[in-house]
Design goal:
Blueprint lengths: L11 H12 L2 H6 L2 E6 L2 E7 L13 H17 L6 E12 L7 E10 L4 E11 L5 E15 L4
Antiparallel strand pairs: 1-2, 2-4, 3-6, 4-5, 5-6
């Protein structure tokens, strides 16, 4: 994983907001995904490779790969949203570049362009081997819409 310094971290309040939201996602829990980094406009989600997330050839399924990419991008946008708003994915495009293989996948969402209503994020997913060798397995772009935060 990249060496991320303390200054690359979002504030404790933003990290808590993102973690609390992530913890409410049943799909991420079901897949076994976890947040690995929460920075301003940049979030990393790690998905361990396991038989539960593979397809028939033993690679991580494109659906699981896409799901962690979508979450990473959404949370990257959320790190820069005010507390009165949340985000929902409007659309995303993902290109699968190589078989999703490795010890785990690391999805990175990066905030690209803010808007009053729509936000655009870049999506990258890497297959990471046990020795740390990384291969870009998917890349994409995502558009999100700001919505009012719902009271809990």
């Amino acid at each position: 994983m990249e060496d991320l310094t303390q200054q690359d971290q979002a504030s404790p309040a933003v990290r808590k907001r993102v973690q609390d939201s992530f913890d409410r996602q049943g799909l991420m829990a079901h897949l076994g995904a976890r947040l690995a980094h929460v920075g301003p406009g940049r979030v990393h989600v790690v998905l361990p490779a396991s038989p539960q997330v593979t397809q028939q050839h033993g690679y991580v399924h494109a659906g699981a790969t896409s799901a962690v990419a979508d979450s990473a991008g959404g949370y990257a946008a959320l790190t820069l949203s005010d507390e009165s708003s949340e985000v929902l994915t409007v659309e995303y495009k993902i290109n699968l570049l190589a078989p999703a293989a490795g010890h785990h996948l690391e999805a990175i969402g990066t905030f690209l362009k803010p808007g009053r209503t729509l936000t655009v994020c870049r999506l990258e997913v890497y297959g990471v081997q046990s020795d740390g060798v990384r291969t870009l397995v998917a890349t994409g772009q995502q558009t999100l819409i700001r919505v009012s935060a719902t009271p809990e």
